[in-house]
Amino acid sequence: MQVTSYYHRTNPDEAGYSLGNLAEIWGPCFDAAGVRSVAEVGAERGRLTQELLRWASESGARVTAIEPEPLDDLLELLDEYPSLKLIEETSHEALADMPIPDAVVLDGDHNYYTLSEELRLLAERSEEGRIPFLVFHDVGWPLARRDQYAAPDRIPAEHRHEYGPDVKLVPGNSGVAERGLPFEWAALREGGPRNGVFTAIEDFMGVHEGLRLAIIPLFFGCGLMWPEDQPWADEVAEIVAPWDRNHVLELAEKARVIQLVQRHSREQEIDERFEAAGRLEEAVSRVVNSSAFVASEWLSRLRRRGQPAFSREELRRLLDESESQR
Ligand SMILES: C[S@@+](CC[C@H](N)C(=O)[O-])C[C@H]1O[C@@H](n2cnc3c(N)ncnc32)[C@H](O)[C@@H]1O
To answer: Which pLDDT belongs to residue 6?
Structure first.
C-alpha cells in the first residue's frame, strides 16, 4: 500500500476539507478488500484524486473521477496520470451509465436527495446487487442532518428543503447564524426527515440488510460502508476499529470545528466593518462635494474671519487617509 505521509504530500489540505487527509485509513481498507477500480464522485480540484492515483499506482487499480465542474488542478492530473478517467457529468448521469466499480467515494452534492439517488443507482446496477465498498464524506456536523445544495436547480423542488444563499452555520444552532461556517446554498433548518447526509445513509441501511458502517469522526466525518458477507469484511473491520467512533477523535473534531467557525466569524466581522467604513466614506464624500457644504464652509469662513470650523481640504485629506488605511 502506497500512502504518502501527510507531511510529504505535495498538495496538503491544511484546512482539512479533503478526504485525501484520510488516505492512511481508506488505503489499507481498499487493499484488504482487493479493490481494482474506484470512482470518486465530486473530485473538485483533485486533492483526493491525487491520493487515489498514488495508491492505485502500486495496486494497478483504475481511478475514475466524476465531476461536473472540474477545476484546473484536476484537469492537470489528467496529463500527469494518463490512466485517470474523468467523467464531466453529475453523479446521477454517470452512475446510471458506467460499470459500477469495486469502490465508490461519495463526496459530491451533500444532500439527502442526491445521496439517496446515488445509493439507489449503485444498489440497482452493481453485480448481483452487491453494494461496492463505499466511502462517504460529511457524515458529521454540519451536513449530517442538514442539506447543502451545490446547484439548487438540479434538485427537484419537492426534494428540496427550504434553503437560502450564503448560509452561516454554528454548532448547536439548528437554524442559521449571522456569522459562522459559510455555505453558498444550504437548508435553513437542521434535522427532521430526509435532511442531510447521515440521514440518507441511515435510511439506505434501513432497507438494505447486511451492511457494516464505520464512522471516522474527523474532518467533518468520514463513513466507510461494506457488505458483511464479503470474505474480507472482518479484515476491514479490524483496520478501522481503532478509528471507528473514536471518542478522542470526536473531541479533537469538536475543538477543530469550533476554532474553524470562530476564524470564519472573525473574518466575516472584519469584512463587515470594512464594508461599513467604505459606505460611511462614500456618504461623507457626497456631503463634502455638495453645494450645501460649500455654502456652509463659506459662511463659517465669514463668521470666523477667514478660519472656517471645517474645510473641504481637511475633510478630503482625512477621507484619503481613512481609505488608504482600509
Ligand atoms: C467537497 S468537493 C469534493 C472534494 C474532494 N472529493 C476531495 O476530497 O478533495 C465537492 C465537489 O462535488 C461536485 N459536485 C457537486 N454536485 C455534484 C453532483 N451532482 N455530481 C458530482 N459531483 C458534484 C462539486 O462541483 C465539487 O467539486
So the answer is: 47
Query: Which pTM does this prediction carry?
Result: 0.88
106: DSSP letter: E
Ligand 1, residue 138: give the atom nearest the CA: 1
Tell me where in the chain the CATH 3.40.50.150 domain(s) lie: 6-245
Ligand 1 centroid to residue 109 C-alpha, Å: 6
Q: Which CATH architecture group holds 6-245?
A: 3-Layer(aba) Sandwich (3.40)
pLDDT below 70 — which residues of the chain?
A: 1-15, 326
| Helices 312-325, 247-288: crossing angle, 10 deg rounding | 160
Assess contact for 8 and 73: CB atoms under 8 A: no
Question: Grid coordinates representing 229?
Answer: 458477507
**Strand 181-187 relative to strand 163-169, pairing:** antiparallel
3 state SS of 264 = helix
Which of 17, 67, 71 gets mutated to test ligand 1 (max ligand atoms within 8 A of its CB)? 67
Q: Ligand 1, closest atom to CA 19?
A: 8
Which backbone phi and psi does 168 adopt, to 5 degrees? -115, 130
